Amino acid sequence: MPQSENRMIRAIAVALLLFVSLGPASANTGRVAVIGFVARQSEDIAQRPREAVKMAIDEANEQADKNSDAIHFVLSVQDDQGNPHLSIFIANYFAKLHISGVIGPWYSTTSMATAKIYSVAHIPQLNFTSSTSLFTKLGYKTTFRVIGGTDDLARSLAKVAVDTLHGQRIVVIGNDSSYSTALTAEIISEISKRSQNASQVLTVNAQTSDFNAALTSAVNKQADLIIFSAYVRQKEDFLKAAKRLGIKTTILFNDGAINLPLFDENNPNIYALEPGLLLEKCPRWKSFHQNFQRRFGHPPNALARNTYNATSMLIAAIRQSDSTDAAKVTDYLHQMHYKGIAGEIAFSPEGTLLNPTYTLYHTEGQKWQPVQFFAANMKAASGCAKD
């Protein structure tokens, strides 16, 4: 890494590590558990997930104030800017701080880069995005994922593409990041298991906002279904390009799409596959939604649900293990069957979510409407969590 970049990262890191966001002040001076939240905080899409983490911690501290012996929680918010070097710097800081657990990082590159550091420090690392499935295949006891990884998502996307949307000439448009590369390869593999029809891949730069060439190429290949497997932050530019080019081809987005206003009045064939159950039917989701709206003045998005689940489960593990020691918390997470906002959350020995679920959405007017529910094992899929 160039010396100038190294100096810049260290200067930024020193400034960032001074920022610790506390929950409500408490007279309790007993045991304290520090929970980290690492993401590219400057992105607008990170705001609501961050608010959900804070809400979970605030709620826990409000309960703890009634019990003088309870563990209290402190939130440390860190901005790694999606940079693996900066994320490593933050992970080493957290290891020295002996935090009880971390939510994040956001990206596959930063999650993979920091996994060994957290493992050596015995700090549980709860991933809340569909990052590459290699993350939980590293062999570390401390890696966990509260939603499915790229292999789970790819299977469900392929099933939707072939069985539900009946794609005959499928083109997958991804970017050159490790996340998208892994997801795209898995989608193509899963499609080939379900269909004899050829599918093709087009790759753009992970930082681009220009999709004109990729979309034009997909049209020239006579695609009847385009699967988008790149980053959430690229979806709006992708759809703007599709609208500008007048593309009517059916589009299927990977997860994160329903967090954005991805509507095209000229193309009624826009779909998105999102992790989880149809939330509106779950009492816990309704309560979370109402409380979030009241606290922050706007509704949560799907990523906020994921971070709230991850943070609440981590808090429950800390409380039920009666310890702020990260190693004990990690052990307890492996045993848990936690009642999340929707269904139950439990992990395999690798830390992957057992039987992840997905819901297919379709744009109708200016709203995302649920169409179909998917699970690897429909019989084992848990319904809404009940108290």
How do you describe this structure in short?
The chain is α/β, with parallel strands linked by helices and 387 residues long. It has helices spanning 3-16, 47-64, 84-97, 108-120, 150-164, 178-194, 212-220, 235-244, 283-296, 302-321, 326-335; strands spanning 32-39, 72-79, 101-103, 125-127, 143-145, 170-175, 199-204, 225-228, 250-253, 270-275, 338-339, 344-345, 357-364, 367-375.
Describe this structure in words.
Strands 7-6-8-9-10-13-14 form a 7-stranded mixed beta sheet, with helices on both faces. The chain contains 11 helices and 14 strands. It has helices at residues 3-16, 47-64, 84-97, 108-120, 150-164, 178-194, 212-220, 235-244, 283-296, 302-321, 326-335, and strands at residues 32-39, 72-79, 101-103, 125-127, 143-145, 170-175, 199-204, 225-228, 250-253, 270-275, 338-339, 344-345, 357-364, 367-375. It folds into 2 domains: 3-147 and 281-345, Rossmann fold (3-Layer(aba) Sandwich), CATH 3.40.50; 151-274 and 361-375, Response regulator (Rossmann fold, 3-Layer(aba) Sandwich), CATH 3.40.50.
